[in-house]
Amino acid sequence: MMQDSLTRALGGLKETRMDDVAAHHVRKRLDLAWVERAARRRARFAVPGFARAFAAATLIVLVAMTTMHAAADSPLYGARVGVEDSLVAFQSDPVGYLSQLYAERLEEAARFEATGNALAASRARSAQSEALRLLNQISPAEPEQSPEPASPESSPAASESPTPEPAATLRPPVRTATPTPKPPTATPTPTPKPTTTTPKPTTTPTPTPMNVHAYGYVLYADGTLVDGACVSTALDGMCFAGSVKGRVDLQLTARKGQSITLYFRNYDASRGGTLHGKVTVTVGGPDVALGTITLR
C-alpha cells in the first residue's frame, strides 16, 4: 500500500516544474559559487612577478659564475675560454689582459699534467695557444736590437793658403853731405805656410735587418723535454713564443753581428714552481742555432 503511494508521489514530481524566477536565482547562485571557487584556487598557487624575476636573475648569475670558474676538466671550460677571449675588445690594456690569460692557462695545463689528467691538460694547452695567437695579433714581438752606430759626418776643414806678401822694393840710396853712400836696407820676403788637408774618415756601412730563423731545444735538468715553455726577450717579460715537445722555432728580425739574449721559463708544480733558462747568441746568418737550454 505504501509502495503504491510512494510511486504515485514520485510520478507526480516528474510532472512538476520549478518556477522560472526560482530557477534563474538558483542558476545565478551556482555560477557565482563556481567563479569564487576558481579565484580561490588560482590565488592559492599564484607566484608574484618580482619573485619570478629575482629567481631568473639568480639563476643567470649562478650559471655565469659557474662558467667563469670552470676548470679544464669541466664541460663548461670551452664556454669559459670563449667568453674570456671575447672580452679582449673591451679591455683598456688588451696586451696585459692576454698576458695574464696566457700565464693562467700555462699554469693550469702544467697542474693537470702533474696530476695525470691528459684530456684536461690538452684543453688548457689549446686555450693557451689561442691566447698566444691573439697576443701576437695585437702586439707582434720584436727582438731587442743594438743601437745603430752613428755615421760620423766628415767635414774636412780646407785651410786656405795664405797669400804671400809682395817683396818690398829697395830704397834708393840717400846721398848725404858725406861722400860715403849709405847701403840700402832690404826687407826679407816671408815664407808661405804649407797647406794642410784633414783626411776624410772612412765610414763602415750598417748591416741591414734580415729575417732570422732561430731553433733549439728546452729541457729540464733531468733531460725531460719541456712543452709550452715561455720565450721572451726580457727576464719575466711578455711571451712571444713557446716550445712544442721541447722544440723551439722562432722567426726574428735582426742584423748580422747582432747579439740576441732570449729568456725561457715554465711552471711545474712537481719541480718546485717556475723554472728559468737563458741563452745569448750572435747572429751570423739567416739560421741561428740556440743549442740546448736547461731550465733550473
Explain what you see.
With 296 residues, the chain is of the alpha+beta class. Among the domains are: 70-138, no CATH class; 210-295, Immunoglobulins (Immunoglobulin-like, Sandwich), CATH 2.60.40.10. Helix content is 38%, strand content 18%. The strands form 2 sheets. The chain has a 4-stranded antiparallel β-sheet. Strands 4-1-7 form a 3-stranded mixed β-sheet, with no helix packed on it. β5 and β6 (273-282) form a beta hairpin. The protein is elongated and about 210 Å long.
DSSP summary: helix tally: 6
Order of helices and strands: HHHHHHEEEEEEE
Under CATH at level 1, the class of the domain at 210-295 stands as Mainly Beta
**Helix proportion of residues, in percent?**
25-40%
The name of the CATH topology of the domain at 210-295 is Immunoglobulin-like
Low-confidence stretches: 142-170
Structural class: alpha+beta
Widest β-sheet, arrangement of strands? 3-2-5-6
How much is the average pLDDT?
A: 77
Indicate the CATH architecture of the domain at 210-295.
Sandwich
Separation of the first and last Cα atoms: 120 Å
Silhouette: elongated
Largest sheet: 4 strands, antiparallel
Radius of gyration, in angstroms, nearest whole number:
51 Å
Please tally the β strands and state the result: 7
Approximately how much beta-strand content do the residues carry? 15-25%
CATH superfamily of the domain at 210-295, by name, is: Immunoglobulins
Layout of helices and strands:
Layout: H1 2-14, H2 20-45, H3 49-68, H4 77-86, H5 94-115, H6 118-138, E1 210-220, E2 230-232, E3 241-242, E4 247-254, E5 259-268, E6 273-282, E7 287-295
Parallel strand pairs: 1-7
Antiparallel strand pairs: 1-4, 2-3, 2-5, 5-6
Helix pairs in contact: 4-6, 5-6
